[in-house]
C-alpha cells in the first residue's frame, strides 16, 4: 500500500497538458477581465455603490475607488503573463491575489465560477505549468520533458469535485420531482428561435433537463477518466456547456469548463495542440522567439515536496468544505447557511423584498428606509433573500442613522422571500432588532422557518 | 487537426440538437406548444388599455383647456366651476396614465411634469411675479406645473370660490390667469406629444415580446410594479401618513391638497387602474383579455398567486373606502387608517415584486451581470 503510494507520487508524465492548460486558462482569464470591463461592470458593481457587502472576516477588503481599474489592469496583465508563461510564479501569484481581491470586494456578485477560478489559480501557484512552451523556458533556455503525474491529477480531481458535488446537490426533491427552478427559467426562454415556443414549454423537457443535468454532473468526471468513454464525454461537455451558454447568462464559465476538461486527454493530444500553437507563432515570426531549438531538454522537473503537501491538504479541504451545511438545522435553500462555496449551482430561484424600519426604541417612533438611497438594484435583489446580507445592511443602516443624530436606533426588517416558485413567506423575524445581532457561523435562529421541506442534499 | 475535428463534432452535435427538436415538434401532433401568446397580451394592454385611456385623457385635458379659455374670457362663477370640474375629471383619468412611464413619456419627463406633488407655492408665485419661467426643460419647475399647480391656482389661492372669483376678476392678478393658461396648455401639448408617440410606435411596441431588459413586456411589468410601489403606495399614502418621516405626519403632501376632498377618489381610481392592468380589463368596457394574471397562471400552472394578488387589490380597495374623502382630516384625526392602507398595499408590493417577478422570470430593471 505504502509502496504503491510512493510509486504513484514518483510517476512521471509529459508536461504538455499543464502547458496547454496554462495557455488556455491565462488567455480566457484575460478575455474575462476585458469583457467585464467593457460591459461597464467595474463601475456599476464596484464604484457606483455606496456600500459593499463584505465576507465574514474580510471587511477590510473594499473597492479602491478609481484605482479599482488599476486592479483590473493588474489582474488582466498577470493573466496574459500566465498564458505566455513569463515570470510564471510571480504572474500566477499576482493573478490569484488580484482576482481573489476583486471577488472579496462585494459579496453581491458571488458566483461559483469565480470561486472556481480562485481555487484553480491557487493550485497553479504550486504546479509546474511553465516548464514547457513558455517564455520562461525560452529565456532560461531550459525545457522540461516530464513532470510528476500527480500535478495533472490534482487538477483533474479538483474538476471532478466540482462536477460531482454539483451533481450531488441536484439530488433534491425540488430539482428532481418539481423540475424547479429549471421549469421557471426554461419557460421564460420563449424568445429563443425554434425551440423557445416549443420544447422550452414542455413539462417533459424540464424534467429531462433536470434529471439529465444531475446524471451529467455525477458521471462526467468518470466518463472523462476512462479512455474508452473520453471522447464521447468531451462531446457531452461541449454540448452541455454550449447549451447552458445559450440558455443562461453565465458569461465565460462554459468556455473555462470546456477547455479545462481537455486535461483529461493524454499528452499526445496536448502535444498536437502545442504543435498548432507553435505553427501559429511561427507564422507570426516574432524575432528571437523560437520554441523549437536552442532549448536544452531536461528530462524531469522536480516539484518541491512541500508543494505536494500543500496541494494534498488543499484538496482535502475542498472535499470537506461543501459538507459544512450539514452542521446547520433547518431548510438549507431557505437559510443559506453553508450554501456558498459548495458547488450548489443554479439550484434555487429566489426573490425577496426587504423593507427596513428604523425605530427609536424609547419613543417607538419609526420610519421606513428607501433602499434605493443606499443600494444599487442588483445589491437590493441579492440582499433581499440572503440573511447574512440583510444583517450586514441592517447594521449599516443603523450606524448610518446613528451618525445622523438619531437616538436609540433599532432596526427591524419586514422581509418576504419566494423560493422555487412557491408563494412567498416571511423571512426574517420582524420582531428581532438587527442591531442586537452579530453575524457568526452559528445557526441564525432569527430566520423564520418555512412550512415546507425540500428533501435531499 | 484535433481542434478542427472538435469543431466539426461540435457543429454536428448542435445541428442534431436543433434538428431533433424541430423534428419532434412536427411529428408529434398532440404536443402542446407554448400556448401563452405574449404578443396578444401586449396587444390587449396597448389597444384596450393604454391607447383608449390616453385618447380619453387627451380629450379631457383639451376640454379643460377650453374651459380655462372660456373662464379667461368670462370670469364668472359658472365658468370657474366648470374649470374645476373639468380639472377633476381629467385628474381622475390621469390615474390610468401615470403608470406608463416609458418611451416618449419617460424621455420628456411627462409623469413628473404632470403630477409632482405637493406643488411648491413659492415657486409658482415666483414664476408668476417674474413672468420668466421654463416649464419645458427646467426640472425645478416640476413642482410648479401640472395637476398640483392647477390644484393650487383653482382651489388654494383663497378660501372659497367667491373669493377666488374676485381674485381672478381683479386685473392686478392677470398674471395668475396667464400662468393658469400656460400650465394647462403645456399639459395639453405634452399629452399630445406622448399620445402621438404611442399611436406611431404601437406596432413596434406590441411586437417586442421577447424576454429581455429592453422588451416591451419587461418594461411594462417593471413600470407597473414601480408605479404600484411608488406612485400609489408611497406617494398617496406612505409619505402623507409619515411612515417615511419618523411618524411625523405630513398631511400637506396628499394628492390634491387644496381641493382636499378628492384624494380618496383619485386613489381609488389609481387602484382600479392597477387592478384593470393586472387582470387585462379594457379601459372602456368590462371585457378582458390576456394579462399578467393569465401569464402568471400559465407559468405557475396555478391560480394561488394571482388569487392572492387580486385579493390584496380588493382588500386595499375596502380599506381605502373606509377612509375619509378628505385625507388631510383623516390623517389629523386617525392616521392609523391611512397606515393600514399603506401596509395592505405593501403586502401587494411583496407579491408583485417577489412572487410575480420570479414566477415570470422577468429581470429587474438595469440588472446586468452574470449568474451561475
Global shape of chain A: globular
The general outline of chain B is globular
**Which strand-content bin applies to the residues of chain A?**
5-15%
Number of helices of chain A: 18
- Terminus-to-terminus distance of chain B: 33 Å
| Average of per-residue pLDDT values of chain A | 93
Quote the distance from N terminus to C terminus of chain A.
33 Å
Q: What's the SSE pattern of chain A?
A: HEHHHHHHEHHHHHHHEHHEEHHEE
Task: Kindly state the number of beta strands of chain B.
Answer: 0
Instruction: List the helices and strands of chain B in order.
Output: HHHHHHHHHHHHHHH
Would you kindly provide a written description of the structure presented here, covering whatever features stand out?
The complex is a heterodimer of chains A (457) and B (372). By secondary structure, chain A is α+β, with helices and mostly antiparallel strands. Chain A has helices spanning 2-10, 16-38, 41-47, 67-84, 88-105, 112-124, 135-140, 149-168, 173-177, 182-187, 203-225, 227-247, 253-260, 267-284, 305-320, 332-335, 377-383, 387-403, and strands spanning 12-14, 142-148, 296-300, 350-360, 366-368, 409-419, 425-426. Chain A has a four-stranded antiparallel sheet with strand order 5-4-6-7. A three-stranded mixed sheet of chain A has the order 1-2-3. The two termini of chain A are 33 Å apart. The model of chain A has no long low-confidence stretch (mean pLDDT 93). With 372 residues, chain B is mainly α. Chain B is 68% helix and 0% strand. Chain B has helices spanning 2-27, 38-73, 77-94, 104-107, 110-115, 121-130, 146-156, 161-169, 174-207, 216-238, 263-279, 292-300, 304-321, 327-334, 336-360. In chain B, helix 2 (38-73) runs antiparallel to helix 3, helix 7 runs antiparallel to helix 9 and helix 10 packs antiparallel against helix 11 (263-279). The two termini of chain B are 33 Å apart. Mean pLDDT of chain B is 89; it is low at 1-33. Chains A and B meet through helix 3, helix 10, helix 12, helix 14 and strand 4 of A and helix 1, helix 13 and helix 15 of B.
Amino acid at each position: 500500500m505504502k509502496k504503491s503510494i510512493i510509486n504513484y507520487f514518483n510517476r512521471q508524465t509529459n508536461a504538455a497538458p499543464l502547458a496547454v492548460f496554462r495557455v488556455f486558462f491565462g488567455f480566457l482569464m484575460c478575455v474575462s477581465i476585458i469583457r467585464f470591463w467593457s460591459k461597464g461592470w467595474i463601475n456599476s458593481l464596484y464604484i457606483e455603490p455606496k456600500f459593499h457587502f463584505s465576507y465574514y472576516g474580510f471587511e477590510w477588503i473594499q473597492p479602491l475607488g478609481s484605482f479599482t481599474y488599476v486592479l483590473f489592469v493588474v489582474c488582466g496583465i498577470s493573466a496574459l503573463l500566465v498564458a505566455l508563461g513569463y515570470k510564471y510564479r510571480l504572474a500566477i501569484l499576482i493573478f490569484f491575489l488580484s482576482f481573489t481581491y476583486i471577488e472579496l470586494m462585494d459579496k453581491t456578485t458571488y458566483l461559483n465560477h469565480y470561486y472556481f477560478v480562485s481555487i484553480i489559480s491557487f493550485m497553479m501557484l504550486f504546479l509546474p505549468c511553465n516548464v514547457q512552451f513558455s517564455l520562461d523556458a525560452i529565456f532560461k533556455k531550459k525545457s522540461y520533458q516530464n513532470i510528476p503525474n500527480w500535478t495533472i491529477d490534482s487538477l483533474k480531481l479538483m474538476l471532478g469535485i466540482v462536477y460531482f458535488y454539483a451533481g450531488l446537490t441536484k439530488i433534491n426533491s425540488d430539482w428532481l420531482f418539481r423540475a424547479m427552478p429549471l421549469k421557471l427559467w426554461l419557460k421564460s426562454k420563449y424568445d429563443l428561435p425554434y425551440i423557445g415556443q416549443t420544447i422550452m414549454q414542455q413539462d417533459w423537457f424540464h424534467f429531462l433537463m433536470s434529471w439529465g443535468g444531475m446524471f451529467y454532473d455525477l458521471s462526467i468526471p468518470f466518463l472523462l477518466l476512462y479512455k474508452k468513454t473520453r471522447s464521447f464525454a468531451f462531446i457531452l461537455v461541449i454540448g452541455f456547456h454550449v447549451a447552458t451558454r445559450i440558455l443562461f447568462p453565465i458569461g465565460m464559465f462554459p468556455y473555462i469548463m470546456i477547455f479545462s476538461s481537455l486535461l483529461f486527454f493524454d499528452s499526445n493530444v496536448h502535444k498536437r495542440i502545442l504543435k498548432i500553437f507553435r505553427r501559429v507563432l511561427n507564422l507570426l515570426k516574432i524575432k528571437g522567439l523560437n520554441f523549437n531549438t536552442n532549448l536544452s531538454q531536461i528530462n524531469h522537473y522536480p516539484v518541491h515536496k512541500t508543494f505536494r503537501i500543500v496541494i494534498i491538504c488543499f484538496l482535502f479541504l475542498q472535499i470537506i468544505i461543501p459538507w459544512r451545511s450539514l452542521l446547520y438545522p433547518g431548510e438549507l435553500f431557505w437559510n443559506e447557511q453553508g450554501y456558498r462555496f459548495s458547488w450548489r449551482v443554479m439550484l434555487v430561484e429566489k426573490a425577496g423584498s426587504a423593507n427596513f424600519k428604523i425605530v427609536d426604541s424609547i419613543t417607538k417612533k419609526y420610519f421606513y428606509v428607501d433602499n434605493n438611497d443606499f443600494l444599487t438594484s442588483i445589491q437590493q435583489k441579492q440582499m433581499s433573500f440572503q440573511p447574512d446580507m440583510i444583517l450586514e445592511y441592517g447594521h449599516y443602516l443603523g450606524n448610518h442613522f446613528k451618525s445622523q443624530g438619531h437616538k436609540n436606533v433599532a432596526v427591524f426588517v419586514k422581509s418576504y422571500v419566494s423560493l422555487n416558485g412557491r408563494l412567498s413567506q416571511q423571512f426574517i423575524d420582524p420582531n428581532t432588532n438587527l442591531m442586537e445581532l452579530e453575524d457568526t457561523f452559528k445557526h441564525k435562529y432569527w430566520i423564520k422557518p418555512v412550512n415546507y421541506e425540500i428533501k435531499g442534499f | 487537426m484535433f481542434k478542427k475535428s472538435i469543431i466539426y463534432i461540435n457543429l454536428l452535435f448542435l445541428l442534431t440538437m436543433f434538428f431533433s427538436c424541430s423534428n419532434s415538434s412536427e411529428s408529434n401532433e398532440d404536443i402542446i406548444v407554448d400556448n401563452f401568446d405574449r404578443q396578444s397580451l401586449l396587444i390587449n394592454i396597448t389597444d384596450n388599455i393604454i391607447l383608449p385611456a390616453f385618447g380619453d385623457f387627451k380629450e379631457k385635458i383639451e376640454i379643460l383647456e377650453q374651459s380655462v379659455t372660456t373662464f379667461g374670457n368670462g370670469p364668472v362663477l359658472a365658468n370657474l366651476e366648470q374649470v374645476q370640474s373639468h380639472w377633476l375629471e381629467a385628474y381622475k383619468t390621469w390615474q390610468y396614465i401615470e403608470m406608463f412611464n416609458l418611451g416618449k413619456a419617460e424621455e420628456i419627463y411627462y409623469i413628473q411634469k404632470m403630477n409632482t406633488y405637493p406643488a411648491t407655492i413659492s415657486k409658482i408665485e415666483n414664476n408668476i411675479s417674474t413672468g420668466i419661467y421654463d416649464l419645458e426643460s427646467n426640472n425645478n419647475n416640476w413642482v410648479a406645473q401640472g395637476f398640483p399647480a392647477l390644484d393650487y391656482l383653482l382651489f388654494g389661492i383663497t378660501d372659497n370660490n367667491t373669493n377666488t372669483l374676485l381674485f381672478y376678476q381683479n386685473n392686478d392678478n392677470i398674471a395668475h390667469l396667464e400662468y393658469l393658461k400656460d400650465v394647462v396648455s403645456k399639459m395639453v401639448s405634452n399629452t399630445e406629444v406622448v399620445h402621438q408617440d404611442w399611436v406611431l410606435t404601437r406596432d413596434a411596441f406590441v411586437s417586442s415580446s421577447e424576454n429581455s431588459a429592453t422588451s416591451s413586456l419587461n418594461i411594462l411589468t417593471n413600470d407597473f410594479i414601480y408605479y404600484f410601489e411608488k406612485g400609489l403606495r408611497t406617494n398617496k399614502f406612505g409619505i402623507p401618513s409619515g411612515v417615511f418621516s419618523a411618524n411625523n405626519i405630513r398631511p400637506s403632501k396628499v394628492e390634491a391638497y387644496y381641493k382636499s376632498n378628492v384624494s380618496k377618489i383619485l386613489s381609488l381610481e389609481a387602484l382600479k387602474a392597477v387592478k384593470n392592468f393586472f387582470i387585462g380589463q379594457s379601459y372602456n368596457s368590462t371585457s378582458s383579455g390576456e394579462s399578467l394574471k393569465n401569464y402568471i397562471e400559465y407559468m405557475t400552472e396555478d391560480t394561488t398567486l394571482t388569487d392572492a394578488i387580486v385579493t390584496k387589490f380588493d382588500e386595499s380597495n375596502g380599506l381605502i373606502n373606509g377612509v375619509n374623502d378628505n385625507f388631510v382630516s383623516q390623517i389629523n384625526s386617525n392616521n392609523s387608517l391611512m397606515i393600514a392602507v399603506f401596509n395592505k398595499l405593501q403586502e401587494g408590493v411583496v407579491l408583485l415584486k417577489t412572487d410575480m417577478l420570479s414566477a415570470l422570470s422577468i429581470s429587474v430593471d438595469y440588472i446586468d451581470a452574470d449568474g451561475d
